[in-house]
Specification:
881 residues; mainly beta; Immunoglobulin-like; five-stranded mixed sheet; 7% helix; elongated
């Protein structure tokens, strides 16, 4: 029993000694250092700790500005003379605040006291400063910046990043912090972190970027003696200035890494090999791998010294050389690129060590070409080489190509115009000297009537009978000879044929034309176009047989100008007209004043406004109708009449009131109502209108009568002769009897009508008188006039003939063209008794004609007897006045 008590006492004493020893196992030689924002703690164990059998645990605690921010516990195996270390990176720059690290050990349930080391922050600053300065961050990370103020600064600090103010935390009386999530790349120039104190800003720079992001490594050989590797930059690091990215290939540095290429001299052998590229910067690194057999990845260099050894009109021979001798042993294929203007032609040639005698055919004569060459391996083809340096050459000239010939006929006039397109420089093969044109009827065949046209002329008008068919041949000539002949057959035109025109509307500067297929179109179709009005040079295009649509575009198209488009079927004989259309590339509004002959006419209470048909040359759009507007004298719209007839020439405004109106006529087009023309009209009442008609009629009649009167007055003589011709008056000749004595005969003068001039032969009237003897019943008394009467056969309206009583001898009186007017009769006293009758048988009538005797010339005692003889000659009148 005593023995067990002693053993228990010994065990308790032993346990107390161990516990005492455990309590004395504390860290020794504790040190604290830093690098940037990383804290490094080192310490060693006491010698007594080596006797411990179980692991020893250490506790680590970090305080920033005396505030715990991190705690960590980790075990270590005690060893005699062992040294331990621990590091931790602070999210805050060490300059911003003090950092304290506390360390203690724990064994079983016994813990040693804390061992403590402190790194103080920056002690004093003269002006506010921002930390950290120029630090590198990866995109997506979280950063804490601080602003440290001088002692005694009373202003509050405000911090902003990238010009954006953020929430600021006050860490101490002189320190403020800003926490930010960096989700963008700053670029090589960095991002400003600013601290505003009062009116001034203070700051630092932060660099935000990525680790290397290169990809797609690919290795090859160019000369079979080295390896060339290329890769792509998948993403820029944005920190090239702050942290460059070095590259290595198989551990060797790359000289041209900035060009994404790296080369090394190696022994190229058959078989695959692993090629490794490494890229590293301060934020990370990337490793790229490519496995390749370089003998199957030969990327040749461009051919050198390319020359055109033999140049002909339509082909050329090329030669070149290699700078790499190994190429002459390879099976090579090469591409030859020939370019002229914007046209490129590529041909491919294959051979072992190919470098000469490559012939390129189908060239254009008299043309300048540029040629380049590139090559690659024929077997296990990898890549084409770069193109060689460009070399040019000029082919020899040749005869021109065949002309594109077309016809232009006029439906209303005789004659045909033959047109041909000007040959392009690539078709003429030299300067054109002239064109030869010949023609003959279709039934005759062959070219006759040859003529020559100058090189600047591309059409010829032929005065041919369009009712007959003709064949026309045109050739172009240059110094090398004539082109192949181009022949076109002109169909006979029939005057009675009619062609239906349909409308077509332009779009995007041209016409989109479609037509129905024709079985007659054995060689395709021809579409030509020309302005509808005026002379023009026809243009045309050819369309293949399997195509029934075309896009018509020309540099000569003008807006507002109507064009006629015709579609012909190309046959072995003459072209066949299929359809014809008219349209505008773009319709334009017609200018005002379209209706230049605007007139109006009142019809009761209606007014008809009319105009002449609109000339086609003045229509800049399709006219679909007309509209008439009317404004009364108060400018109120009272008339709105329209028609959809494009050929109408009048519109009527009905049921208008009396007054003044202004009428406006416009043409309706796709461009709107246009061509405005205006006329003013005044409507009168119906009674006023009738009065006007009567007055106008009276004035018209009065004017006509006035004109007739003036004309009649001026030509009265001619009118009187024509309507009421004069009857000739006898010429009277009186012979006195011998008993009257000598000197008793005197001439009897009768006044002539001075209004009439005529060539009438005189009517001779002979009167034989015997003194104191009766003659034919006429009796003269003393101091009495001679009196005689005529029978009813005579002239009732005869003038009084006065015969003087004393006449020394016989006389002759001449009377020409007696007047039809009734002159005033001189009344004489009739005497009863026998009278003398005229010897030609005239009988007296009831009216007595007295011939008075002048008493001064004839005495009262002188008797007189006479015989009157009348001779009549029909008068002759002139044909016109």
């Amino acid at each position: 029993m005593i023995t067990w008590v002693l053993l228990l006492s010994f065990f308790c004493m032993s346990t107390q000694d161990v516990i005492g020893k455990d309590h004395d196992c504390v860290p020794e030689n504790v040190t604290l250092s830093s690098s940037h924002q990383t804290l490094l703690v080192t310490w060693s164990d006491q010698a007594s700790c080596a006797a411990l059998r179980d692991p020893l645990h250490y506790h680590m605690q970090v305080l920033i500005a005396d505030k715990p921010v991190h705690y960590e516990e980790f075990p270590v195996k005690p060893e005699i003379g062992s040294t331990h270390s621990w590091n931790w990176t602070s999210p805050l720059a060490l300059e911003c605040a003090s950092h304290t690290v506390r360390l203690r050990s724990q064994y079983n349930n016994h813990t040693s006291p804390w061992s403590q080391q402190t790194l103080p922050g920056i002690k004093a600053v003269k002006q506010p400063e921002v930390f950290p300065k120029d630090k590198l961050y990866e995109v997506g990370s979280t950063a804490i910046f601080c602003c440290v103020l001088p002692e005694g600064e009373k202003n509050v600090a405000r911090m902003h990043l990238n010009a954006s103010y953020m929430n600021t935390t006050k860490l101490s009386n002189k320190t403020y912090t800003l926490t930010a999530q960096l989700n963008w790349a700053s670029g090589d120039s960095g991002t400003d972190v600013m601290c505003q104190v009062g009116k001034y800003d203070y700051g630092a720079c932060a660099y935000i970027g990525y680790p290397p992001g290169d990809k797609e490594l690919q290795c090859e050989t160019r000369n079979l003696e080295s390896v060339d590797c290329h890769w792509k930059v998948g993403r820029k690091t944005h920190i090239r200035i702050k942290s460059r990215t070095p590259y290595t290939l198989l551990g060797s540095p790359c000289v041209k890494a900035s060009e994404q290429t790296c080369s090394q001299t190696v022994r190229v052998g058959v078989g695959e090999r692993k090629w490794t590229l490494t890229a590293t910067n301060k934020l990370g690194k990337v490793e790229l791998v490519d496995i390749a057999d370089l003998t199957k990845r030969v990327h040749m260099w461009a051919p050198k010294r390319v020359v055109a050894s033999t140049v002909n009109a339509r082909n050329v021979s090329l030669e070149w050389a290699w700078d790499v001798p190994q190429y002459y042993n390879l099976s090579v294929k090469c591409q030859v690129n020939i370019s002229h203007g914007e046209t490129y032609t590529t041909s491919e040639h294959t051979g072992v060590g190919l470098h000469s005698a490559v012939v390129v055919n189908d060239l254009i004569p008299n043309w300048t070409y540029d040629v380049t060459v590139r090559c690659g391996t024929a077997h296990d083809f990898w890549k084409w080489s770069d193109w060689s340096i460009k070399v040019n050459f000029h082919t020899r000239s040749d005869v021109p190509d065949a002309l594109d010939v077309w016809m232009q006929t006029n439906e209303n006039q005789s004659g045909i115009i033959i047109s041909w397109k000007k040959l392009l420089a690539s078709q003429s093969h030299g300067n054109i000297s002239d064109y030869a044109v010949s023609w003959a009827q279709s039934t005759e065949g062959g070219g006759r009537n040859p003529t020559t046209v100058g090189p600047m002329t591309h059409s010829l008008a032929l005065n041919l009978d369009t009712t007959e068919g003709w064949m026309v041949t045109v050739t172009a000539r240059n110094i090398n000879g004539s082109s192949p002949p181009s022949t076109i057959t002109i169909p006979s035109l029939h005057p009675d044929r009619t062609i239906v025109l349909s409308k077509i509307y332009g779009s995007v500067g041209g016409f989109s034309l479609r037509w129905s297929a024709s079985t007659a179109a054995s060689c395709g179709y021809t579409v030509d176009w020309c302005p509808t009005v005026g002379n023009c040079s026809v243009e045309w295009i050819r369309v293949p047989p399997n195509q029934t649509n075309a896009r018509i575009v020309s540099k000569n198209f003008k807006d507002g100008l109507r064009y006629t488009l015709s579609v012909y079927a190309c046959t072995q004989g003459a072209p066949v007209l299929l359809e014809r259309r008219e349209g505008y590339v773009r319709q334009q509004s017609i200018a005002d004043g379209l209706f230049k002959s605007l007139k109006w006419k009142q019809m009761d209470s209606d007014v008809e406004v009319s105009w002449d048909p609109v000339p086609l040359r003045e229509q800049t759009a399709f006219i679909t109708g007309y509209v008439l507007y009317g404004l009364n004298d108060t400018n109120n719209m009272v008339v709105n009449v329209s028609t959809d007839d494009p050929v109408a020439t009048s519109l009527t405004a009905r049921h208008l009131n009396i007054g003044s109106y202004t009428f406006t006529v416009k043409a309706k087009t796709a461009a709107g109502e246009c061509g405005t023309s205006t006329i003013t009209a005044t409507l009168n009442s119906l009674s006023d209108y009738l009065i006007q008609i009567v007055l106008i009629s009276l004035l018209t009649v009065f004017g006509l009568l006035s004109i007739i009167t003036v004309l009649c007055y001026r030509h009265w003589t001619c009118i009187k002769r024509t309507v009421y011709p004069p009857i000739p008056k006898p010429v009277l000749t009186i012979k006195w009897l011998a008993s009257m004595g000598e000197g008793s005969s005197r001439p009897l003068h009768v006044d002539q009508c001075h209004h009439i001039q005529t060539d009438v032969m005189d009517v001779l009237e002979q009167l034989h008188c015997n003194s104191e003897a009766p003659v034919n019943g006429y009796i003269r008394g003393e101091n009495m006039p001679w009196v005689f009467t005529q029978t009813p056969k005579g002239y009732y309206n005869q003038p009084i003939i006065t015969i003087p009583s004393q006449s020394p001898s016989p006389f002759r009186g001449v009377i020409a063209n007696p007047s039809y007017y009734n002159p005033m009769m001189q009344t004489l006293n009739q005497q009863s008794g026998p009278v003398e009758r005229c010897s030609d048988g005239y009988q007296p009538h009831s009216t007595t004609e007295t011939l008075p005797v002048n008493p001064k010339e004839e005495g009262p005692d002188t008797p007189m007897f006479c015989v009157l003889t009348y001779h009549f000659v029909t008068p002759t009148f002139p044909e016109s006045c």
